């Protein structure tokens, strides 16, 4: 898992590091990293470095200072550098002097559109970690006329560093260079950041435990249940699925299918869609009700269940079964309407709640808001459950405060029934004994991987995501040396 630190933590780490480094050293390390990345982009996009044209958009803080120093380094490689000063009276003095000495041009905002029209690359040094709100009017107007590739210093200006939200105008970067640590914006708003490149400024020893973690292929490969010599159909965990209704048999088929495709163990189904499930998945033992289904090691409850009396009793029954439960869709709505259902639960049995934003609002009484990480964390604590908040980024919070994020590759999962598939996958991982926070995070990661593999550039349905689960598991195992060995 890759660590992510909030701006408060990064600033504190930088302050500690600055006590041990010469003044200005950190900025120069950061700026040198920006110049290296800029040169790489110039080679790629303009076919040359020397004699190409770079425009620096320079705000009134240290972010602008980074851009100015990077411009000075680029001058040494023969680049024609022009700095547009957005806050002339607050421009970083040493950086400005360095660029002047190196032979860079300095222009005011009025000349911005003209120099931008000639640019091979634009460096966004408008605002960094101190950013609040969208771009101010002058910066917004300039950002609007940019046509060249954009390299953002630390973050694309106008996006919130800690939530990734954009209110108003913001830069859209092709590449973002981050210093010393990944910050929340880099994983919560990848569409604005483009490719994120890390520049080491020596912070690692000062950072401590991350605030968020990003799931990677190796994490999935390390925990995905693979049958071993001693295994039979029971030892790998039996997943129970209580989903669907006469009106929504499809949800039952998708959820059950996802559990079938995810692991080699057994899947049992309980509900009025038993016949449809059996017809599509002959390996599943399907019965009418939770009480006569037999032993399972986890339950998935909710997709297509309906919110009537039968659904409510089903939720009560699985919550009191003493095994880990993944509560999705209608089961989340039932808990929102009848919170007493949670009394049926043994507090020591893992519970995973998987709401999307509207279900979250019903459950918690408030929208997730801008800070989805904080919202998921608070809900996890309140319900003593792992809360997986769906969205373009999936956020998975544990009651102990740990948070996992999955960074999406496209929006292919914005399709009907994809949540049903996810809950079946999480249920299968829970049945195999995977701890709930990991099961939810890794399930979401492989779900997104399956979508990307199935899509290959064209819209897909949930059935195709489901069919791609084995390929996604193969892919994460192949990407990770640990996974390949097993
Ligand atoms: N602290 C350090 O040791 C290091 C800091 N570095 C750089 O320093 C940056 C942080 O610098 P600062 O704290 O000086 O602040 P910034 O450069 O992020 O912001 C400067 C000022 O911009 C204004 N501003 C805020 N929101 C704005 C908006 N939406 N539109 C326009 N202007 C806005 C504010 O008045 C703010 O004080 C980092 O992002 C990084 O680029 C790097 O040089 C690495 C080392
Ligand atoms: K920036």
From TrEMBL:
What cofactors does the UniProt entry give for this protein? Mg(2+); K(+)
Family to which this protein belongs: Belongs to the NnrD/CARKD family.
Know the name of this protein?
Bifunctional NAD(P)H-hydrate repair enzyme
Annotated YjeF N-terminal domain ranges read 10-209
Subunit structure of this chain's protein: Homotetramer.
What is the recorded function of this protein according to its Swiss-Prot or TrEMBL entry? Bifunctional enzyme that catalyzes the epimerization of the S- and R-forms of NAD(P)HX and the dehydration of the S-form of NAD(P)HX at the expense of ADP, which is converted to AMP. This allows the repair of both epimers of NAD(P)HX, a damaged form of NAD(P)H that is a result of enzymatic or heat-dependent hydration.
EC number(s) on file: 4.2.1.136, 5.1.99.6
Biological process terms from the Gene Ontology for this record are:
metabolite repair; nicotinamide nucleotide metabolic process
Question: Could you tell me the keywords of this UniProt record?
Answer: ATP-binding, Isomerase, Kinase, Lyase, Metal-binding, Multifunctional enzyme, NAD, NADP, Nucleotide-binding, Potassium, Transferase
Work out whether the entry's keyword set contains Nuclease.
no
| Binding-site list for AMP | 390-394, 419
Q: What is the gene name?
A: nnrD
| Any one GO molecular function term | NAD(P)HX epimerase activity
Q: Which PROSITE patterns match?
A: YJEF_C_2, YJEF_C_3, YJEF_N
Locate the residues binding (6S)-NADPHX: 62-66, 128-134, 154, 251, 304, 356, 420
Q: Which CDD domains match?
A: YXKO-related
How is the co-factor bound, per the entry?
Answer: Binds 1 potassium ion per subunit.
In its UniProt entry, the species of origin is given as Haloechinothrix alba
For the ligand (K(+)), the binding residues are: 63, 124, 157
Concerning HAMAP family, the annotation shows: NADHX_dehydratase, NADHX_epimerase
What catalytic activity does the UniProt entry give for this protein?
(6S)-NADPHX + ADP = AMP + phosphate + NADPH + H(+); (6R)-NADHX = (6S)-NADHX; (6S)-NADHX + ADP = AMP + phosphate + NADH + H(+); (6R)-NADPHX = (6S)-NADPHX
**Boundaries of each YjeF C-terminal domain copy?**
216-476
């Amino acid at each position: 898992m890759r660590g992510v630190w909030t701006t408060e933590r990064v600033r504190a780490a930088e302050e500690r590091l600055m006590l041990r480094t010469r003044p200005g050293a950190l900025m120069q390390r950061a700026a040198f990293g920006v110049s290296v990345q800029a040169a790489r982009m110039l080679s790629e996009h303009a076919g040359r470095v020397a004699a190409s044209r770079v425009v620096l958009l320079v705000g009134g803080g240290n972010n602008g200072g980074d851009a100015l120093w990077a411009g000075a380094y680029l001058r040494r490689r023969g680049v024609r550098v022009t700095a547009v000063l957005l806050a002339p009276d607050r421009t970083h003095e040493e950086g400005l002097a360095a660029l002047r000495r190196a032979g860079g041009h300095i222009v005011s905002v009025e000349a911005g559109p003209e120099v931008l029209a000639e640019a091979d690359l634009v460096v966004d040094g408008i605002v960094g970690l101190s950013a609040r709100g969208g771009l101010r009017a002058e910066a917004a107007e300039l950002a609007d006329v940019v046509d060249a590739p954009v390299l953002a210093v630390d973050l694309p200006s106008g996006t919130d560093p800690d939530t990734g939200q954009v209110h108003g105008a913001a830069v859209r970067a092709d590449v973002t260079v981050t210093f010393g640590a990944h910050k929340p914006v880099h994983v919560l708003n990848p569409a604005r950041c483009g490719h994120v490149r890390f520049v080491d400024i020596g912070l690692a020893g000062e950072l401590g435990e991350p605030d968020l973690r990003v799931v990677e292929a190796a994490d999935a490969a390390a925990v995905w249940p693979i049958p071993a010599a001693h295994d039979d159909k029971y030892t790998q965990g039996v997943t129970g699925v209580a989903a669907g209704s006469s009106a929504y048999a499809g949800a039952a088929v998708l959820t059950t299918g996802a559990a079938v495709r995810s692991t080699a163990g057994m899947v049992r189904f309980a509900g009025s869609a038993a016949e449809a499930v059996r017809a599509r998945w002959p390996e599943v033992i399907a019965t009418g009700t939770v009480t006569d289904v037999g032993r399972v090691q986890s339950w998935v409850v909710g997709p297509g269940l309906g919110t009537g009396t039968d659904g409510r009793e089903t939720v009560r029954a699985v919550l009191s079964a003493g095994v880990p439960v993944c509560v999705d869709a209608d089961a989340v709505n039932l808990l929102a309407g009848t919170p007493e259902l949670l009394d049926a639960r043994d507090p020591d049995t893992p519970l995973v709640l998987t709401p999307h934003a509207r279900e979250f609002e019903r459950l918690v009484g408030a929208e997730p808001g801008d800070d989805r990480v904080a919202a998921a964390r608070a809900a996890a604590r309140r319900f003593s459950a792992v809360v997986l908040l769906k969205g373009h980024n999936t956020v998975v919070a544990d009651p102990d405060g740990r948070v996992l994020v999955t960074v999406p590759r496209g929006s292919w999962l914005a399709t009907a029934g994809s949540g049903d598939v996810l809950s079946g996958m999480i249920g299968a991982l829970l049945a195999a004994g995977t701890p709930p926070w990991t099961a939810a995070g890794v399930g979401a990661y492989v779900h997104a991987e399956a979508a990307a593999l199935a899509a290959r550039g064209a819209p897909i349905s949930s059935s195709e995501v489901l069919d791609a689960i084995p390929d996604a598991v193969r892919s994460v195992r192949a990407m990770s040396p640990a996974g390949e060995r097993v």
